[in-house]
What we know:
The protein is α/β, with parallel strands linked by helices. It has 13 helices and 13 strands. It is globular and about 60 Å long. The protein starts with a strand and ends with a helix.
Amino acid sequence: MKICVIGTRGFPEIQGGVEKHCESLYPLLDDRFKVIVFRRKPYVSSSKTYPNIKFIDIPSTTIKGFEAVFHSFLATVYSIFYSPDIVHIHNIGPALFSPILKLCGIKIVLTYHSANYEHAKWGFFAKKLLKFSEKIALRTANAIIFVNKFQMEKYSVKIRKKSYYIPNGIPVVSPTTNTGYIKSLGLESRKYIISVGRITPEKGFDILIEAYNKIKTDFKLVIVGGVEAESEYYQHLKKISINKPIVYTGYIFGEKLNEIYSNAALYVLSSLNEGFPLVLLEAMRYKLDVLVSDIPATRLVKLDNQDYFEKGSIDDLSLKLQNKIYSYHIRDYQLDEFDWDKIAGQVSEIYTSLK
């Protein structure tokens, strides 16, 4: 079967939750499937190849609010010429042009990662367009994969009948004892807190920084993530970080990221909303103690009550952060459900059921 993939900037080594999802999933599909991934050319830097995957790099703008629409239209048109059995669309925004595929008799699989219109970074018009795209996406898809079962339960019986809950998986990790990179950042092993994600308002990094600034500790705070269109938000974060032991690494991957995780004491997720946070699963795979915002997405994993703080509350996060620092410990989590091989098998079954 020929599968075209729309809605990711691409992979490998490209920042983003959808990007990590696709990078983990598609190389695991067996040779029954030929996968064509449409990437956004400005983000592509790696020359890595995969046996069952063909990359088509399409010219793209990086203008916030226009980038995804422009790329999705081009990728939709391109995909028609490849005559796929299925077009797999990741998230609701890129599904805006899915009726074109429907008219051409192409089957559509939608993976619903998150309700993008809930993100603070989008303005009024963009949110309206995303809600409109959601209606189109749910209507045109032959099968819908939700990574968040609470999101799936919001919709009608008609939508749920063609829907599947398949969570994100956890990448295989090999913790390291190396400390060269963290030392270059002025960090000591087990003497810092980490938070990982793209620098955007919905990640709540400002809440984390304000909470961190209120506690008494010799632990440093490390924020791992790159800045794209949200430079104004990043400047605000830098302003409230002045004269504080807060380190910004930018976007990192591979051994640098491995070293950051391997030597951290505590992981914090301060997001205001998420689809399904891959970075939380990653931290749990490294057996880190965690403190997370109490949102539906973080309730998809099994954590203790003391691992949650009230969403958006600087005071509650500050109090629990102080407590965690004094009592952090290596932890073992039940993570069998989040296995990428199992997930690839489930996605394969959906593909073949539409043949």
